[in-house]
Amino acid sequence: MEDNEYYVYVHLLDNIPFYIGYGKGRRAENLWARKRRWKEYVKDRIYDVEIQFLKTNLSEEKAKELEVEYQKQYKQLGYPIVGLVGNIQDSESIERMSKKLKGQKRTEEQKEHYKIAIKKRMENGFKPPSWKGRHHTKETKEKLSKMRKGKSVPNLRGEKNGMWGKHSPNAKKVDVYLNGNFIKTFNNTYDAEKFTGVISCRNYANGNAGTHLHKKSGYSFYYKDRKDK
Q1: What is the pLDDT at residue 106?
Q2: CA angle at residue 50 from 96 to 69, to 5 degrees?
Q3: Rounded distance, CA 199 to CA 44, Å?
Q4: For the chain, which terminal residue's Cβ has fewer other Cβ atoms within 10 angstroms, N or C?
């Protein structure tokens, strides 16, 4: 199966194209891992760089081909395209750069800069390529499988879960009754469970248990917007 996850993009400053490249994922948005000539052109105006996608849903081979064609076309039109045409690198340079970047993590400052830059571009109408309808290739799935093999899944239950103590703003309110008498309205099923001690009270609240009554405790559960109370 052909891998069509690649695209060709252009970077602009003051609406002037100055860099054309190809990549996949978030490569176009990464404005920090750039070469010297790119940085010399942009200087301290990294937040003003705009991104446009020229072609999407390409194979890597086609993306490389179009990258060179676009670079030549834009240069002929007089735009100051920086960098080597086609981003040509020998295998030794690629391997050296790969080793240098392997295992490196963004600093907190870089993360903050990245958030600001993305927010600004989104406000200006920037939209990354859509992943709708696209799937990992067989080769990518095999790579991911090898990476995960032998690694244990972290225990994210209880307080280890990042959502511990937090509740979705879309959670439904639950009315609780005891022996037919209204007790209280809770903001979500989790709070209702803590109060009553009934496990999975959402099954009773939405009627999936066949009844809204938990016979052993005498508690009944109804979502606030239900009409069959």
Answers
A1: 72
A2: 65
A3: 57
A4: N
3-state secondary structure of 160: helix
215 Cβ contact list (under 8 Å, min separation 6): none
Residue 126 pLDDT: 64
Closest CA to 203 of 174, 182, 169, 180: 174
pLDDT of 166 = 66
Q: Is the sign of the CA dihedral 136, 138, 140, 144 positive or negative?
A: positive
Q: Are the CB atoms for 11 and 53 separated by under 8 Å?
A: no
What is the phi-psi region of residue 33: left when phi exceeds 0, alpha when psi lies from -120 to 50, beta otherwise? beta
* Pair of tokens at residue 104: 């490196």
Structural domain boundaries in the chain: 6-129, 174-223
DSSP per residue, 76-104 = HTT----S-GGG---HHHHHHHHHHHTT-
Cα gap 45→13, rounded to integer Å: 9
Three-class SS state of 132: coil
Low-confidence ranges of the chain (pLDDT < 50): 1, 86-88, 90
Which residue's entry shows tokens 């301290």?
Answer: 44
Are the C-beta atoms of 174 and 195 separated by less than 8 Å? no
What is the value of pTM for the model shown? 0.43
